[in-house]
Amino acid sequence: MAISIETVNQLNLEEAARDTQFFKDFMTQVTVYEDEDLLLVDKPAGLLSIDGKDLKVSLLSRLERANPEVKLIHRLDMDTSGLMIFAKNKQAQTHISKQFIERIPQKEYQAIVQGTLAIPGKKGEINIPVRYEPSIKPKHVADPEWKKHALTHYEVLHHELRKGQPVTRVALHPVTGRSHQLRVHMVHLGHVIIGDPIYAEGEALSLAPRLNLHAHKLRLKHPTMNTWMAWESAVPF
């Protein structure tokens, strides 16, 4: 949902006026794991990963105010919550970024989608490119003719009810990392993620107060110890 420039300006002023202790407390609240090389945090839904063109309130900017050494590696959509990994030095940033480029990290998201999607235990994949469509910004669309492929593996976990309506909890494993990939791939399957302020409409939008998409698990190689490390964040819906 778009917000007015007046609201953006007010949020920017409030953020700029906060003292250092606020940002240190925020960092403590969201930190899942930290060592000399890595900072793993649990990103809240509704917070940008990095500053936007106008809105200068984001996870990265808050972490940088607490620790200027924090360095970005990847992003989550503003409406998505869950695990994000940051580096604390240039060497770690280069190492982990290379892993993401080579698709080494293993990521699992959980989502709740509208309707009944197959039977529990059913596994499948969505292999169709996703691209930005400026005529309906900020939406992206599935486009089989687009040059950059997008691949998501999914597993049906179980069926539930939300406000008396059938929904399905799914585990999503993105192989590629295109913008809005999981959201568009679920739309392509005919089962939009509930509470999605961009892609859901009507009943699907009203079934949840927020986008029901959470970065649940992350596994990657530590940049200096060269051992596999794995983390999990509780799903808040």
TrEMBL record:
GO function terms (MF aspect): catalytic activity, acting on RNA; pseudouridine synthase activity; RNA binding
InterPro entries: PsdUridine_synth_cat_dom_sf (IPR020103), PsdUridine_synth_RluA-like_CS (IPR006224), PsdUridine_synth_RsuA/RluA (IPR006145), RluA_PseudoU_synthase (IPR050188)
GO biological process: enzyme-directed rRNA pseudouridine synthesis
Top-rank taxon, per record: Bacteria
Coiled coil ranges: none
Segments forming domain Pseudouridine synthase RsuA/RluA-like: 37-186
Protein name (database record): RluA family pseudouridine synthase
Organism per entry: Psychrobacter sanguinis
